Amino acid sequence: HQDWYRYEVAILVGGGIGVTPFASILKDIVHKSKIADLRFPCKKVYFLWVTRTQKQFEWMTDIIREVENVDSNQFMDTHIFVTQFKEKFDLRTTMLYICERHFQKVAGKSLFTGLSAVTHFGRPNFQDFLKSVRSEHPNVRTFGVFSCGPPNMTNNLDGACTNLNKQEGATFNHHFENF
């Protein structure tokens, strides 16, 4: 995961306790931002945190808040996926989702985390996410994708990268660790 900064666009995905290696990367971004030293090829970082509940890792919420506080150039784009909720078709989850989206629009931050990061309910659709990143950055030829987490998550992400690499356009180089 140490080569993330070598890609013009890096996608970091941490699942469960697998978010730990990314804490040091985020802290490094905070440190370099404070000394105005973001001189490396990477121009954008997407950070996806997949967690059962953000309460399990309150310390990570604090680190993301630090990044948000110093990220005046919108270098980071953070998405939190809370998986403890049922599918979006469940009434309770639908109501939570509606409240979250409304609060995000009104307050500019998440009702659940207090962060500017977008909070999603359920597991990420990696293929759709990677497609949107590719369309957001049409001039990027190779994206660095770095993940750490349970095998099911990294396998799903690897499959999405493989499927998209079969198509015309930019490629996704996936580097991962399982626990």
UniProtKB/TrEMBL annotation:
GO terms for cellular component: NADPH oxidase complex. It is a multi-pass membrane protein. Its main location: membrane. Residues 7-161 form the Ferric reductase NAD binding domain. Keywords: Calcium, FAD, Flavoprotein, Glycoprotein, Membrane, NADP, Oxidoreductase, Peroxidase, Repeat, Transmembrane, Transmembrane helix. InterPro entries: Cyt_b245_heavy_chain, Fe_red_NAD-bd_6, FNR_nucleotide-bd, RBOH/FRE. GO terms for molecular function: NAD(P)H oxidase H2O2-forming activity; peroxidase activity; superoxide-generating NAD(P)H oxidase activity. GO terms for biological process: defense response to bacterium; molting cycle; post-embryonic animal morphogenesis; superoxide anion generation. It is found in: Membrane. CDD domains: NOX_Duox_like_FAD_NADP. This is Ferric reductase NAD binding domain-containing protein. It comes from Magallana gigas (Pacific oyster).
